[in-house]
């Protein structure tokens, strides 16, 4: 088995930990924010997990081992949610949310920008770049509209 498979599992566990932090902290704010955050993370995670599964297969894992290992990384999300709930201040959820949501949001923005912007800058076809930017703006618009309802 290649080391890239194990590194991917470690990165996925950390990613899931931050997702757990974000979901738990969002539900501490309100049900609406919690559901919106959960839906956004689910929409991100479905293709992400499929890609990670493919990485594990290429790294030499068989299908059953790759599936079990992918499932085990989900424990990171549970640990993140538990950490967010245990870190809740005696003064109330506001103290906890005051640092967890900006921390996780900043992390997600950093990862997105590190992955997306270099690809956009290397794209030779302006039409493809425009499509990607329009889709990015569409995603932001959908999130803004959902937050208003």
UniProtKB/TrEMBL annotation:
<dbReference type="Pfam" id="PF02535">
    <property type="entry name" value="Zip"/>
</dbReference>
<dbReference type="InterPro" id="IPR003689">
    <property type="entry name" value="ZIP"/>
</dbReference>
<keyword id="KW-0812">Transmembrane</keyword>
<keyword id="KW-0472">Membrane</keyword>
<comment type="similarity">
    <text>Belongs to the ZIP transporter (TC 2.A.5) family.</text>
</comment>
<feature type="transmembrane region" description="Helical">
    <location>
        <begin position="99"/>
        <end position="117"/>
    </location>
</feature>
<dbReference type="GO" id="GO:0005385">
    <property type="term" value="F:zinc ion transmembrane transporter activity"/>
</dbReference>
<keyword id="KW-0864">Zinc transport</keyword>
<dbReference type="GO" id="GO:0006882">
    <property type="term" value="P:intracellular zinc ion homeostasis"/>
</dbReference>
<keyword id="KW-0813">Transport</keyword>
<keyword id="KW-1133">Transmembrane helix</keyword>
<keyword id="KW-0862">Zinc</keyword>
<feature type="transmembrane region" description="Helical">
    <location>
        <begin position="69"/>
        <end position="87"/>
    </location>
</feature>
<protein>
    <recommendedName>
        <fullName>Zinc transporter ZIP13</fullName>
    </recommendedName>
</protein>
<feature type="transmembrane region" description="Helical">
    <location>
        <begin position="129"/>
        <end position="148"/>
    </location>
</feature>
<keyword id="KW-0406">Ion transport</keyword>
<dbReference type="GO" id="GO:0016020">
    <property type="term" value="C:membrane"/>
</dbReference>
């Amino acid at each position: 088995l290649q080391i890239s498979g194990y590194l991917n599992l470690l990165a996925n566990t950390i990613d899931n930990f931050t997702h757990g932090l974000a979901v738990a902290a969002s539900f501490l704010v309100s049900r609406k924010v919690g559901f919106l955050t959960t839906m956004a993370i689910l929409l991100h995670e479905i293709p992400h997990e499929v890609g990670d599964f493919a990485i594990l297969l290429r790294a030499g894992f068989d299908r059953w081992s790759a599936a079990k290992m992918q499932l085990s990384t989900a424990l990171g999300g549970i640990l993140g949610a538990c950490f967010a709930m245990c870190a809740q201040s005696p003064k109330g959820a506001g103290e906890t949310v005051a640092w967890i949501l900006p921390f996780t949001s900043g992390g997600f923005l950093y990862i997105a920008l590190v992955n997306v912007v270099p690809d956009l800058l290397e794209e030779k076809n302006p039409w493809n770049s425009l499509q990607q930017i329009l889709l990015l703006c569409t995603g932001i618009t959908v999130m803004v509209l959902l937050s208003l309802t």
